[in-house]
Amino acid sequence: MRKILIIGSGKSSSYLIKYLLSKSEKENLFIIIADKYIAKTKALLNNHSNSKALKLDVFDNVSRAKEILAADIVISMLPARFHLMVAKDCIKHSKNMLTASYISDEMLALNNKAIEKDIVIMNEIGLDPGIDHMSAMKVIDHIKEKNAKITLFESYTGGLIAPESDNNLWNYKFTWNPRNVVLAGQGGPAKFVQQGHNKYIPYNKLFKRNQKLEVKNYGSFEGYANRDSLKYREIYGLEDIKTLCRGTIRKVGFSESWDVFVQLGMTDDSYTIENSMDMTFRDFVDLFLPYSAKDKVELKLQKLLNISESEPIWSKLLEIDLFSSQKTITIDKATPAQILEFILCKSWTLDPNDKDMIVMTHKFIYELNNKKYQIDSNMVCIGEDQTYTAMAKTVGLPLAIATLAILNSKITVKGVQLPVNKAIYNPILKELIDYGIEFNEYEIPFQTQN
Amino acid sequence: MRKILIIGSGKSSSYLIKYLLSKSEKENLFIIIADKYIAKTKALLNNHSNSKALKLDVFDNVSRAKEILAADIVISMLPARFHLMVAKDCIKHSKNMLTASYISDEMLALNNKAIEKDIVIMNEIGLDPGIDHMSAMKVIDHIKEKNAKITLFESYTGGLIAPESDNNLWNYKFTWNPRNVVLAGQGGPAKFVQQGHNKYIPYNKLFKRNQKLEVKNYGSFEGYANRDSLKYREIYGLEDIKTLCRGTIRKVGFSESWDVFVQLGMTDDSYTIENSMDMTFRDFVDLFLPYSAKDKVELKLQKLLNISESEPIWSKLLEIDLFSSQKTITIDKATPAQILEFILCKSWTLDPNDKDMIVMTHKFIYELNNKKYQIDSNMVCIGEDQTYTAMAKTVGLPLAIATLAILNSKITVKGVQLPVNKAIYNPILKELIDYGIEFNEYEIPFQTQN
Fold first, then answer.
1. Rounded to an integer, what distance in angstroms lies between the CA atom of residue A89 and that of residue A99?
2. Cα distance between residue A380 and residue A355, in whole Å
3. What is the CATH number of the domain that holds A166?
4. Region of B375 on the Ramachandran plot (φ > 0 left; ψ -120 to 50 alpha; else beta)
5. Is B213 strand, coil or helix?
6. A265:B201 CB<8 A
7. Model confidence over B108-136: pLDDT tens digits?
8. I need a labelling partner for B46 at 20 to 30 A (CA). Which of A291, B197, B290, B405 fits?
9. Has residue B357 been placed in a domain?
10. Residue A352: left if φ>0, alpha if ψ -120 to 50, beta else—which one?
């Protein structure tokens, strides 16, 4: 039997495991899920004879290396900063490896060693990064084959709440790691290129400078720029492109309201608040507002950020009980970001029957024979329940499909990779359709305002 | 002869050296200034027989330790992050040491070792930190001796341009390290307490939330909160104080204009700009503005930050040629902060005859027998020329006086210290008066709005 070792198991593992188990008889696979806590994993495995949940301290170098040595291929589902230690073991023992995370500089530096050992370390093979690269490159390669010139590529992805479960004013709930949502955008400015001009948006303007997005059949959204899009000119082979921007999707109005937290300083994770335990939500807000002998907290916030009570922003803040003098924080020595997460979790946690939704939308403009053309490409995926979420499906299936393809030598690239080559993305995108993850492409009459 | 080793020599060394040389005959001192570049130091020493300029690579551990071993006392004038390596040598060789920088956590951790070796590592003994602590503690101790209760302490300091040299719209020139000015405020939120309420101001609101300050005989200024004032409750022995804030002084209108750079993201030092070499100032500004097919750079900035051409902010931006399409940046792979510094240095560099000015102002409110009292305490110091600046004087003299006092066992505290005790600050403040550094204290009729 061929042993697939999955290190770490979180919310995104359900479909990954389901897919691999479903193939395990025919493909002769044995799935080992190694983590510190394995109760939930056991439920997912449901005593399947081709599987094992293994209690493992992933920081125990000896035990981890032993399991990696015994495996035929390794998937790291750990938080991104821990992939490197797994990758070093995989290089040592010549095992192929996959992650759904962005390639770090340290990971990239392992490229030569991986090639020497004749293995692939496949990264960014989840949803975003992952399906975004693959679905974009399919269209990009197709346009390039016509000898057309691509002048614009914009791509936005979001993990949202399904329309049928969307019942709060923010049109948002935590469908994945809340901490990542609170800290989003803090890793440096958003970088992109627009009409040939490089643009850098600092964190304090990121949520203000969002743009409207229409997703055919799914209505209006908004997107804000995400991380460093400039480097994708080279990765996508679009060195001369005039406009390239990747970003995050939210429902309309979310970003300007989220910006309130940014402007107040509530998303800061770099220091702790004195006496946070038992502090009321209201007192927490007041920490970030000027002192006044007469003005209430609400009025001070309105004045500081120039918001009026009639604005949708204000209703959103009231909905999360931000000014409550009853509700208290129950974390000691918490950072502002941890406290904000605590407050938002009281309002944005999924109800038992809530479903999540993934929305991805690409826009391409290209020139052929002095004419301009536009293609829009959209993918929407709605979760089944809170185990088999759209997030778990879109992150886990590309990983699972790629794992089997590497094991079966259908994907044969070596080194530290991401899925931008036809030989990788074609079989994966094709198989994803069988699972309902499909892009709808539309030729749009070119609009000059683009 | 008693050897005083000064490691590192910069703009702030002139008065330090002048003072020690002037005392060298009578006090039997020999002054050694060790640095990588010693041309300027030699000019300051002017072949004085009780001195030597020593070419030393301060990162050469062997040579540095050798010089420290041979000295009787050590002053580190290196950038703050390098004091620790000097301190470790001083502990090893049981040498007293002084710095004018804030005590880092790592420095504080050396306290027990310093006490074991019976030495003092005296920090924060320059201007700010330094004279601010000493002059404040003098008043605080005086009020406490009356058994009065201090309810408010606010303290602001600034390195400014002297009125006679103040000829630009910003009322500001670089009188000390420009890089520190550009990066000011980025080390975390400003923390302080006001009327019993802790307050945290994030960087993006720091320059907006400034307050007006009147300095008797010197007119109107403004101040913005600086670093962590909360910890000074303990350091100053004011655990129950209702209001405590330390901050930075600028001339009126500076902060709201500086905030333009903050809002645009131009003070970011964490990443480099593509193709910064030969970029025009105008193109640099445009990096931070939304793309527009029709709007000029100026109009885009006005729209983004809601500034009109009739505002003083706008005239200030024009004065520094921020929108020039002629002037270019001549630094490759520069960070936004480095480029902003480059642009500002074109406008804010001192003319040959310009003088600098230090302004420090304290405000104290205390209660005695159910009555409230207010004391204001101000110090203004104007430089002689660009060598003997007010900054060099107010940083260097406390260091120099303390050095001699420690050498002569007039100051006998041990461990990692800052100058908040009477035994330290009294002799130093007294001697500073001989050099024209004197605080004027005013009993102000208590105003209820405080």
1. 14
2. 13
3. 3.30.360.10
4. beta
5. strand
6. yes
7. 999 999 999 999 999 999 999 999 999 99
8. B405
9. yes
10. alpha
